[in-house]
Amino acid sequence: MSDINNIIIVGSGPAGWTSAIYTACAGFNPLVIAGELEAGGALMNTTEVENFPGFPEGIMGPELMEKMQAQAEKFGARVEYEEATGLDLSGDIKTVTTSYGTYQARAIILALGSAHRKLGVPGEEEFSGKGVSYCATCDGFFFKDKEIAIVGGGDSALTEAIFLARFGSTVHIIHRRDSFRASKVMSDRVQEVENIKIHWNSTVEELHGGETLEKAVLKDTQTGETRELPVSGLFVAIGHDPRTSIVKDSITLDDAGYIVVDEPSSRTNIPGVFSCGDVVDRTYRQAITAAAAGCRAALDAQNYLGEL
Question: Which residue numbers are catalytic?
Fold first, then answer.
């Protein structure tokens, strides 16, 4: 029994680290399965976060995640940079299988996060890594002084457009509607950047090129007309899908694939298994709401362990 953890937290975004902070502070010595390539969650691929409480001057996404991790480890959380590949949630003792081994716990917190949503158009897979990217902060530098496009209209898309404007000769924002879904602050800010051009009521239909991306075919959503836009880089920022493939056969999901919890708690349909963050939230999807959900999951898990 000495090898059985009290709590395993699968995921390391704002929800996962907040769960780790709270359960560590309570003396449960949680184990965080942080992932390998995408440890830290979606904020590792963002630039400046300006709306997280406590940082009036803003903070870079990776730095915020590093601070959360340091706080969790300060109180005794342990971290393994491994990818969860399987979960056995039956019985009183749960098992997490990773790319390197197995771990057991009495309670599990699923903070699985979400994955980049793709356009699903011809040429997207072909030019992935050859002009098509899902991470502006990772790849923006490679398109210095080139024509760049970004698809999306939310806060994340506009934040990335402003970041890309540092590198590209022109940044083309392609949005399917005639107004942004983003906050007014971000909408106003992006329209003040001289080398950003907005293509309203437009969708990407196809991508073409040789060894690398050379142009995108755009379609006008109102007239149906198509036109070509010469670009060397195209960044996709149209949202995310919950990472629930690993639990789809054991945890109750909604029609969009999000984990269903017993609101206002974080309890799933399996006793001892809790969930929080973007893998649950299909409405707000903010770093602060993910962190708050992580707190709830931690408290629920503590109460569960206390009743055993």
Answer: 135, 138-139
